[in-house]
C-alpha cells in the first residue's frame, strides 16, 4: 500500500470507522440468546445426561448384574451385587448403588454394557441442595423426568 | 400577571430540583442503555427480566449498592475519603445549571427559560466547574491509603488535565465563530448563521469529541479504571453508596460532555437545517426534544465506541494528546482565527 | 513522587490470568523488572492418579488438562499409548481424528482470540469468538454428547463413525466461520489502538524462543519454522496440504496474526479431509483389557497451545507405571518473565494472553 494511501487511512480514521461498521451490523443482527427457562433447547440425541438404567419393551429390566460397568468405571461410581434366582436365566442385581457425585460422564460404562441396560439420558437438570441426593439406589436408577426431579429436589431422601 | 412568589421563588426552586433530577434520570437511563446496547452489539439481549425489558435494572443495582457495607479502612483519611464522591458529583451537577435545554417559551406573559442560570461566560463556567471533579479523584485516591488507587488516581488526573487543553483550544474556535461565551448566545448564533458549527468546524468537533471521551474516562481511554488491568482505579476501595456516587457521577459527566458537544457543535435545541425554509416543518417539534434526541445520539455513540475498541495504554494516551491533539487543535485555532479575520 | 522497585501481585483471582495463576511482579515506575509465576493452584495430582487407572480409563481424564482443547489432549495421549502397544489405526480412523483435532484447534483459537481481545479492551470480540466456538462445540455435542470434556478420540480410533448427515453438518458450520473471522479481523487487524497495544510488545527473538523451549504459535511468530504436523507428522497429517503461518517480529501482534491464519488453515484441512474420507474402519480392534509389555515411549503432537507430549512407561499390566505430560503452556509460561522485562506492566496481561496458557495443563 502506498504511503499516500496509508496516510489517508490514518487521517480519516478508516480503521476506526470500519470497526464501528462491524459492531453496528451486529447491533441490528439477530441475537443468539435463548431465553431459558421459558425456551429450552433440547439436547441432541447422544447428549451425555445423567446415567439411567432401562427396561426392554416388555418392561423387564435389562441389567444382568455382570458388573462390566463397575470394572470399566475409573472413578468408582458403582457398587453392584447380583444374584441368580431359582430357575432364572440370568443374574439380577440385588444391589446397584451409583454415585452421581463421582461420575465424570465419560461413558465407558455405557460402552461396555452388553445389554445396553445403562445408558445416558438427556436429563441435564441435576442440581440439588443436598449431597445425599447424589447417591442412587437400584430402584432410583430407573427414575426419569418428573420423578427424577422430585427425587433430586430433596423432598424425599433415600 | 405572574406573582413574584412564583416567578422569583417557586420556579427557580423547581429548576434547581430539575437540575438535580435531570442528570440523575439520565444516569438511570444510561445505565440501562449501556447494558442493553453493549449486549445487542455483542449478539445477546442484555437485562430483560427486572421490569419490562429490564428498565428496572438500574433501580435494582441502586438498591443493591445501597445495602452494601460501607467500608472505610482504619488508616484512611476519613474526611477526604468521605468527601471525594460528593465533590465529584457536586461539581458535575453544578455545571448543569448553565446548560440551556431549549428555547424559552411563553406561558401567558411569563417567559419560562429552560436553564437555571445564564452567564455571559457560561461556557467558561461549565468547563471550570466540571474540572473541579479532578479534586474528588485525587482526594479519593490519596485517602484510600493504598498504592493501587493512588496510582490510578494519579493517572486519571494526568489524563483529565492533559485533555483539558484540546478541549479549551477547540472550544475557542467556536467562540471565534459565535463571538460569545454565552451558551445560549452560541446556539442563537448557530440559528442565525443557519448551519450547525459542527459542519463549519469539523476538526474542532472531532478533537473535542475525542477529548470529551478521554475527559470522562470512557473507553478507549478508560485504562485508569478498567477491570482487567492491574491497577483498579481510584474508586477501588469504595463500596456501597459512595461507589454508587462515583459511578453515577461518571455517567452524569458523560451527559454533561454530550450536552456540551450538542450545544457547541450541533445546534443545541435547533432543528436540522435551521436556516433552510424547506425544512421549516422541523420547527414543529419543540426545541428541547431536538436537544434530547441529539444528546441520546451522542450517548449512544459513547456506548458504541466502548463496545468496539480496545483500550489505549496510558503512555499511548498521553502521547496521543500531547503529540497529536494539542498541535492539531493549535493549528486548527490559527486557521479558524485567520479565516475569521479575513472573512 | 519517585518510585523505587515496587512489588505488585497479580493474585490467583484475577479476571485476566486465564485460570488460577499468581504473578509476582517487581516494577520500577511502571516498567517491569522481574516477574515470577507461582503455580500449583489447580494441581489435581493427575499424573499420580493415572498410575492407578487403566489406559482406557485415563483417556477421559485427559480432557481435563487443557480444558479448552480436550480432543487434542485425548489425541496426544492415545497416540502415545498406540505407539507403545503397537496398535495401528486404520486410515479412516486417522482422517476422522484429523477432522476432530483441527475442529478442536479452531475452537481453541476462537476462545483464545476472544480472551486476548477482551483483556486488551475490545469486549465484543470475546462474544463473537465464543459464538463461533459454540457452533463447533455443537458439532462435538452431536458427535459424542459432550462439548467441553469431549472424550471423542479413543485408543484405536474414534468412538463413532461420521455419517453423511454429520459430514454435511460440519461443512455447513465451516461455511459460516470465515465471515466471523473476517469480522474479528476487521475489528482488530488494522485498528490503530490494537496495533499500539500489540506491536513491539512482548518481543522475543527466534534464538531466545528456541532457548526457552517455546513451541506453538509463539515460536512460529518469531519466524522459526517448526510445526510437528509437518515436521514429524502423525495420524496421516502428511497427506494434507496446508501452510504453516510464520511471523517475523515475535511480538504479540504477530502471535495474533499467526493464530488467525492457523484457523484459516485448519478450515482448509477439515474440508480436504471431509472431501476425501477413505473407506474402512473408524477404529482398530483393541482388547478389552489392554496390557502393554514393559517399554517406554515419548510422543508429541502439535496441540493448539504448542507441543504437547506424553511420556508413558508400561510395566506389563493394564495400568501404566508412570505417565509424564509435557504441557506446552507450562514451558511457554516460563518465557513470560523474559518477554515482560522492559515492558510496562499494563502490557503483562496482553503478553500473558498471547502465550495462550491454560492452567489445567500447567498444574495438571
Structure, explained:
The complex is a heterotrimer of chains A (158), B (343) and C (364). Chain A has helices at residues 3-11, 14-27, 68-72, 108-112, 145-152, and strands at residues 51-53, 78-83, 92-99, 118-120, 135-136. Chain A has 158 residues and is an alpha+beta fold. Chain A has 2 domains: 1-32; 51-152, Alpha-Beta Plaits. In chain A, strand 2 and strand 3 (92-99) form a beta hairpin. The N and C termini of chain A lie far apart (74 Å). By secondary structure, chain B is mostly helical. Chain B has one domain (4-13, 67-342). Chain B is 66% helix and 2% strand. Chain B has helices spanning 4-41, 57-66, 78-95, 122-131, 133-143, 147-178, 183-193, 197-200, 202-215, 240-265, 287-308, 314-342; strands at residues 105-107, 110-112. In chain B, strands 1-2 form a two-stranded antiparallel ribbon. The radius of gyration of chain B is 21 Å and the shape is globular. The mean pLDDT of chain B is 85. In chain C, strand 4 (295-303) and strand 5 form a beta hairpin. The model of chain C has no long low-confidence stretch (mean pLDDT 91). Helices cover 49% and strands 13% of the residues of chain C. The radius of gyration of chain C is 20 Å and the shape is globular. With 364 residues, chain C is an alpha+beta fold. Chain C is built from 15 helices and 6 strands. Chain C has a single domain, classed as Cytochrome-c3 Hydrogenase, chain B, CATH 1.10.645. Chains in contact: A-B, A-C, B-C. Chains B and C meet through helix 11 and helix 12 of B and strand 1, helix 4, helix 5, helix 7 and helix 14 of C.
Amino acid at each position: 500500500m502506498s504511503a499516500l494511501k496509508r496516510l489517508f487511512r490514518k487521517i480519516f480514521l478508516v480503521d476506526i470507522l470500519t470497526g464501528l461498521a462491524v459492531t453496528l451490523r451486529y447491533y441490528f443482527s439477530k441475537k443468539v440468546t435463548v431465553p431459558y427457562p421459558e425456551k429450552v433447547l433440547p439436547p441432541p440425541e447422544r447428549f451425555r445426561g445423567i446415567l439411567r438404567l432401562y427396561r426392554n419393551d416388555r418392561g423387564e429390566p435389562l441389567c444382568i448384574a455382570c458388573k462390566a460397568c463397575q470394572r470399566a468405571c475409573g472413578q468408582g461410581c458403582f457398587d453392584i451385587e447380583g444374584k441368580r434366582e431359582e430357575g432364572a436365566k440370568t443374574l439380577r442385581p440385588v444391589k446397584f448403588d451409583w454415585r452421581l457425585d463421582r461420575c465424570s460422564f465419560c461413558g465407558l460404562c455405557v460402552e461396555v454394557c452388553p445389554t445396553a441396560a445403562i445408558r445416558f439420558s438427556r436429563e441435564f437438570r441435576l442440581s440439588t441442595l443436598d449431597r445425599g441426593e447424589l447417591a442412587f439406589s437400584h430402584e432410583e436408577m430407573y427414575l426419569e423426568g418428573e420423578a427424577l426431579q422430585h427425587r433430586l429436589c430433596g423432598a424425599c431422601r433415600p | 400577571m405572574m406573582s413574584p412568589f412564583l416567578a422569583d421563588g417557586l420556579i427557580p426552586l423547581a429548576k434547581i430540583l430539575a437540575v438535580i433530577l435531570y442528570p440523575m434520570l439520565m444516569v438511570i437511563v444510561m445505565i440501562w442503555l449501556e447494558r442493553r446496547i453493549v449486549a445487542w452489539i455483542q449478539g445477546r439481549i442484555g437485562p430483560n427480566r427486572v421490569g419490562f425489558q429490564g428498565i428496572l435494572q438500574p433501580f435494582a443495582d441502586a438498591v443493591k449498592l445501597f445495602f452494601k457495607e460501607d467500608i472505610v479502612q482504619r488508616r484512611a483519611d476519613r474526611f477526604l475519603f468521605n468527601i471525594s464522591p460528593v465533590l465529584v458529583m457536586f461539581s458535575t451537577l453544578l455545571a448543569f445549571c448553565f446548560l440551556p435545554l431549549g428555547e424559552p417559551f411563553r406561558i401567558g406573559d411569563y417567559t419560562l427559560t429552560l436553564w437555571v442560570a445564564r452567564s455571559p461566560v457560561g461556557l467558561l463556567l461549565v468547563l471550570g466547574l466540571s474540572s473541579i471533579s479532578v479534586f474528588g479523584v485525587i482526594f479519593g485516591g490519596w485517602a484510600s491509603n493504598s498504592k493501587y488507587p493512588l496510582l490510578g488516581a494519579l493517572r486519571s488526573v494526568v489524563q483529565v488535565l492533559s485533555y483539558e487543553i484540546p478541549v479549551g483550544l477547540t472550544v475557542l474556535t467556536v467562540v471565534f465563530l459565535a463571538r460569545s461565551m454565552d451558551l445560549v448566545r452560541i446556539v442563537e448564533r448557530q440559528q442565525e448563521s443557519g448551519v450547525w458549527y459542527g459542519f463549519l468546524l469539523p476538526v474542532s468537533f472531532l478533537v473535542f469529541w475525542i477529548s470529551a471521551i478521554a475527559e470522562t474516562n470512557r473507553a478507549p481511554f478508560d485504562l485508569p479504571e478498567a477491570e482487567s488491568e492491574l491497577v483498579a482505579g481510584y474508586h477501588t476501595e469504595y463500596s456501597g453508596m459512595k461507589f454508587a456516587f462515583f459511578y453515577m457521577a461518571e455517567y452524569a459527566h458523560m451527559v454533561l460532555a454530550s450536552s456540551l458537544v450538542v450545544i457547541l457543535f450541533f445546534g443545541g435545541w435547533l432543528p436540522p437545517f435551521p436556516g433552510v425554509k424547506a425544512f421549516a416543518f422541523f420547527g414543529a417539534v419543540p426545541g428541547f426534544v431536538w436537544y434530547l434526541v441529539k444528546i441520546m445520539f451522542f450517548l449512544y455513540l459513547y456506548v458504541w465506541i466502548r463496545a468496539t475498541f480496545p483500550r489505549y495504554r496510558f503512555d499511548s494516551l498521553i502521547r496521543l494528546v500531547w503529540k497529536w491533539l494539542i498541535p492539531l487543535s493549535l493549528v486548527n485555532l490559527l486557521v479558524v482565527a485567520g479565516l475569521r479575520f479575513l472573512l | 513522587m519517585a518510585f523505587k522497585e515496587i512489588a505488585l501481585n497479580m493474585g490467583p483471582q484475577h479476571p485476566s490470568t486465564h485460570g488460577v495463576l499468581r504473578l509476582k511482579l517487581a516494577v520500577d515506575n511502571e516498567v517491569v523488572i522481574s516477574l515470577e509465576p507461582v503455580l500449583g493452584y489447580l494441581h489435581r495430582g493427575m499424573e499420580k492418579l493415572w498410575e492407578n487407572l487403566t489406559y482406557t480409563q485415563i483417556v477421559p481424564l485427559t480432557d481435563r488438562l487443557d480444558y479448552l482443547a480436550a480432543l487434542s489432549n485425548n489425541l496426544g495421549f492415545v497416540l502415545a499409548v498406540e505407539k507403545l502397544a503397537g496398535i495401528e489405526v486404520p486410515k479412516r480412523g486417522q482422517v476422522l481424528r484429523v477432522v476432530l483435532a483441527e475442529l478442536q484447534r479452531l475452537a481453541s483459537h476462537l476462545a483464545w482470540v476472544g480472551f486476548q481481545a477482551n483483556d486488551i479492551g475490545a469486549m465484543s470480540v470475546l462474544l463473537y469468538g465464543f459464538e463461533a466456538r459454540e457452533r463447533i462445540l455443537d458439532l462435538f455435542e452431536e458427535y459424542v454428547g459432550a462439548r467441553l470434556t469431549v472424550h471423542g478420540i479413543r485408543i484405536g480410533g474414534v468412538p463413532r463413525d461420521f455419517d453423511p448427515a454429520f459430514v454435511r453438518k460440519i461443512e455447513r458450520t465451516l461455511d459460516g466461520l470465515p465471515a466471523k473471522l473476517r469480522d474479528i479481523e476487521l475489528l482488530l487487524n488494522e485498528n490503530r489502538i490494537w496495533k499500539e497495544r500489540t506491536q513491539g510488545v512482548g518481543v522475543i527473538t527466534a534464538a531466545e524462543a528456541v532457548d526457552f523451549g517455546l513451541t506453538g504459535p509463539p515460536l512460529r511468530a518469531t519466524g522459526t519454522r517448526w510445526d510437528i504436523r509437518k515436521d514429524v507428522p502423525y495420524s496421516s497429517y502428511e497427506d494434507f496440504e496446508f501452510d504453516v503461518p510464520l511471523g517475523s517480529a515475535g511480538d504479540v501482534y504477530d502471535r495474533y496474526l499467526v493464530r488467525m491464519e492457523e484457523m484459516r488453515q485448519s478450515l482448509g484441512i477439515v474440508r480436504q479431509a471431509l472431501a476425501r474420507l477413505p473407506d474402512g474402519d473408524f477404529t482398530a480392534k483393541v482388547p478389552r483389557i489392554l496390557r502393554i509389555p514393559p517399554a517406554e515411549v515419548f510422543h508429541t503432537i502439535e496441540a493448539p497451545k504448542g507441543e504437547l507430549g506424553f511420556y508413558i512407561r508400561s510395566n506389563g499390566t493394564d495400568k501404566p507405571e508412570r505417565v509424564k505430560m509435557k504441557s506446552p503452556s507450562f514451558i511457554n509460561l516460563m518465557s513470560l518473565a523474559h518477554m515482560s522485562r522492559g515492558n510496562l506492566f499494563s502490557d503483562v496481561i496482553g503478553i500473558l494472553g498471547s502465550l495462550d496458557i491454560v492452567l489445567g495443563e500447567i498444574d495438571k
